[in-house]
Amino acid sequence: MEQNFNSYNYTTQSPRKKKGKLGTVIGLVLAVMIVGIGAGFGGAHLGSKSIGIIGGADGPTQIITSDGTTEINKDENDGETEKSEGEGSAEGDVAGALSAINASGTASSEKVHPYEVVPTGVNGEYTTTELYEAVNDTIVLIKVYTTQTYPDYYSYYDYYFGYGEPPEEEEDAEPVYSGYGSGIVFTEDGYILTNAHVVDGAEKLVVVVNDYNDASLTYEYEAEVIGSDASTDIAVVKITRDEKFVAAKIGNSDSLKVGQDVCAIGNPGVTGDIMFEHTMTKGIISGLNRVSLSEGFSLSLIQTDTAINSGNSGGGLFDMYGNVIGVVNSKIVTDTYEGIGFALTINEAKPIMEDLLSYGFVKSRPVLGITTVELNEYRAELYGVRLSKGLLVAEIRKDAAVAKSDLRISDVITKINGTNVETVADVQTIISKMKAGDKVTATVARANSSGELESIDIEIELSESTQG
Predict the structure, then answer these.
(1) Could you confirm whether 313 is annotated as catalytic?
(2) SS3 for 283?
(3) Parts of the chain with a pLDDT under 50
(4) Apex CA 213: angle with CA 35 and CA 247, to 5°?
(5) 313, 330, 463, 465: which one is catalytic?
(6) 158-168 burial by CB neighbour count: b if 16+ within 10 A, else e?
(7) Minimal CA–CA distance to 350: which of 215, 245, 251, 244?
């Protein structure tokens, strides 16, 4: 299979939200579970129409549409509605969102809450109760809708046991509710930070936001995916309305210490019908700089004993000043481990968020700018190569700096900077901490005029990713 350093289309198992699915490898190759619910989802650019629902079954329902029109349904049976014109905009303030990401976390926090929570804890910290009041409304529930391939009654069992071919999927089938996760509102105009595995593959996303004055009421808004990066499990989505949202304060994860108190808020549950929305759990930071390996990328994770469960994916890990210092994404699930959960550090998430906001993908990622084939005995024989390990150069991107080097198609890369490489992930692990413009030395095997293999060192300048 061809592997592309530029596009990062590696052959790996995508994270899933289905109950019991094991994902990312942590540290000592321990199995961890991605803490979301439902089927696996990949990235999608969706419309920015927003809908909002206020009220229960016995009261009036207010629906807020993307054009700012408000409809009040007096009676579900008579279908009568009242409309009032308003001003709505689907345009987001990216500059403001970028500014919010880089605002340093402090003990004080400006809020657009209709009420003010005053911290009374030690050194200006919130108590646990105060922290929940101060930041709970910044956490949202993200409902995920996908298009079903087969009707609910049909299964592969039916197919294999002679009940015929599966019926064809209806064109323009309405997406169905298939999973959920959590998100963190980080700007007052509705930009939301979450996990890529929460939104990937979704046909439609609906974000549920608290009413800030009445805890029994919620609003729903259809969301747009601004960008999603599976390699770092970070995504940014956007919802829109005239009124400001309560925004979380982005903190500084570099100042964290093992043993300090933290709290997680998210939406754990068993199924879509059995949920425990806006659950807060408290614990400590159990460890720092835990390493997650994903498609050759190493990520720094916060380890915590804070209870984390399915549905918490994309929720916030807060310090006691109310700052977001991590994005909850996984936990270890085995019979021999308990209370080991993980969150992506907010400082590592920041540059990813900035690129997703600015470009819709991670532009700043360095690449070699070539396409290769990972060699094994079968592929070596297939391509007529005498080496069964290494990376066969199949394509060189003309607009990349590597095109100016001495690297040739049919070369076999065996080392990068003196380290043996056999897979794309091996190369990415080496260059992931570098930047475009940096140079690496590739050791390649090349046949000379006599047909003998020679080892040649070639200096290659890294290029910037152009893959969305």
Answers:
(1) yes
(2) strand
(3) 1-31, 37-91, 106-112, 151-157, 159-160, 468
(4) 50
(5) 313
(6) eeeeeeeeeee
(7) 251
Q: What is the pLDDT of residue 342?
A: 92
E-strand stretches of 186-296: 191-194, 204-210, 218-222, 224-229, 234-238, 249-250, 261-266, 279-294
CA atoms within 13 A on the CB side of 402: 25
| Nearby residues of 159 by Cβ (< 8 Å), 6 or more positions away | 165, 166
What are the structural domains, with CATH classification, of the chain?
24-50+90-364 (2.40.10.120), 366-464 (2.30.42.10)
Strands (E), 160-239: 176-185, 191-194, 204-210, 218-222, 224-229, 234-238
| Exposed / middle / buried, residue 179 (Cβ in 10 Å: 0-12, 13-18, 19+) | buried
The whole-model pTM stands at 0.65
* Helical (H) or strand (E) element with 254: none
Report, in angstroms and rounded to the nearest whole number, the Rg of the chain calculated over CA atoms. Answer: 25
Question: How is residue 155 written in tokens?
Answer: 């299964």
Q: Note whether 461 and 405 are within 8 A (CB).
A: yes
Please give the structure tokens belonging to residue 85.
Answer: 């014109």
State the Cα–Cα distance between residues 10 and 114, nearest whole angstrom: 48
Size of the chain in residues: 468
From 48, 109, 182, 197, active-site residue: 197
Q: What angle do CA 267, 272, 277 make, to 5 degrees?
A: 25
- Other Cβ atoms less than 10 A from the Cβ of 408: the count is 12
Residue 29 per-residue DSSP state: T
Residue found by looking up tokens 């998100």 in the block: 183
> Which of the residues 137, 189, 200, 233 is marked catalytic?
233
